[in-house]
Amino acid sequence: MADTRAADSKERILQGATKVFAEKGYLGASMTDVERASDVRRGTLYYHIANKEALLFEVCDRLMTAMVSDWQDVMSANVDSEERVRLFGRLMMRQISHNRQAIQVFFRDWVWLEGDLRAQIEKSLHDYEQGVMNMLAGGVAENRFSMSGRLPAYGLLGLFIHAYTWFDPDGPATAEEVADQFSDLVLNGLLVRK
Question: Which one of 46, 69, 136, 139 counts the least CB within 10 Å of its CB?
Fold first, then answer.
């Protein structure tokens, strides 16, 4: 029972911090803001989290873990390169739809991390970006895509990642519809012309 309460408290803290960081930015948020948003006492807050930077790291690391898990699903799927890009897009838009605040915090505020915490996030980002480059290189190897490398990978990532700034899950288009339209845009530029 105590373990369940502790897990519930930590989850409330992470959700509260994500909300506060999204609204105020990491630099503008205080631990008192997190305490209020989490509905926990200061002692409980500091029992679970050492400091504000450690809290930012947990929010960022949790998102990267979810994105890497999605990435592993993309790469293990038994589909051709074109369908792999579509699957990647759908999973990215699903993350944006379900974790909009965490994505906003991650892409705006991870740069405030320092030392080992920053190095861990940088490594995760590098590995993720490398995975996208590998996905595109696989399409070139299959003679389906006309290009791969850093520039097309960053273009693909940028197209999806910045959707958090405007995508409305309750809007006229679903996350999957947006993903499919984005994938069409990307694939029209990548596919080998015959």
Answer: 69
